[in-house]
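Problem 12. The chain below contains 342 residues. Write out its predicted structure in token notation.
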Amino acid sequence: MTNLRLMLSSLTLLGSVAMFGQGARNIVISEVMTSNTQSIEDEFGHREAWVELANTSYSTYNVRGMYLTTNPKVLDESLSAPQRISMMSVIPNGDDRTNLAARHYMMLFCNSNPAQGKLHLSLPVDSTGPVFLALYNANGVELIDSVTIPVLEADESYARIDGHWTVCGVGDATPGHDNKVQANAAKGKIEEFKDKDPHGFAMAIMAMGIVFLCLSLLWIFFTVFGMIMRHMDTAKKVVNQQPIKPITKTVAKTAEIGHKTSNLLQEGFDKKGIDMEVYMAVIGMALRQYEDDVHDVESGIITIKPKDTGWDDEYTQMTQLHDPFLPSTPKAPIIPTTPELH
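Solution.
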């Protein structure tokens, strides 16, 4: 029974250590400024170099007891934990701000005196050259995060944005805030697009989409324009085409006369003292004249006038049935007048 209790206690202890270590892994170095002349101030109004830590997890983690160092000698694996710790600056406890909430940030001032506050470290940061910065777990052995900071100008920062480190210009640092806000300010639109589309697939699809959209709009425009022009040509042909049937002009003329008749009647009603019979007589004469002259304006009409003859005209021409009569004068034609039948 005693051995079983020892095994359970050991497993519980190992699980706790593993969970603790996993929580520490979620703490990362987020942003660093080595020369601060216009950025944030401490409680005493001083501007000092600063380091920003971020909790990337969705649970609270206390960073007290963790270590920061700028001495690359701590990477020597032959060093013991006390030897490493002697080259580090510890994050002290006793301040609620070390209890870092989920997705939150904490600022630590460097090149400072720890007596000025819990978040002031004696960590040396050189602004004239590259700086190695490492974050160690509370045991002083486990390396949590590290970065080499290039030489920065005054008020420039070195920030981790979407997993990549980049130099942010003056005024673009975001101490205590999400560096994604900084990305929009520090980078141009082209750089942002390059980061989001490193292989150019989205750019190619967008370009082809714009081209096809323009071609579609042009096709629609010219199709509609062509239809309009065809309709206009058809309308011109219809207007200029000669009427085939005479009834066309008749209808047009009738409509014209009707319009004139309406105007005459209206004027007749409006003008007092003028007899309406005069207007009606004029209208009747106009219609009569139009009916008599219809064929003069029509084409392709043959008018045949009948010629009446007597019932015996043909018989007088048939001389084989009777003797012709001699004309009364030598020059007169031989035309029978009162033939004798044989």
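Discussion. Confidence is low (pLDDT under 50) at residues 13-21. Students who got a different answer should revisit the alignment rule from Section 12.3.
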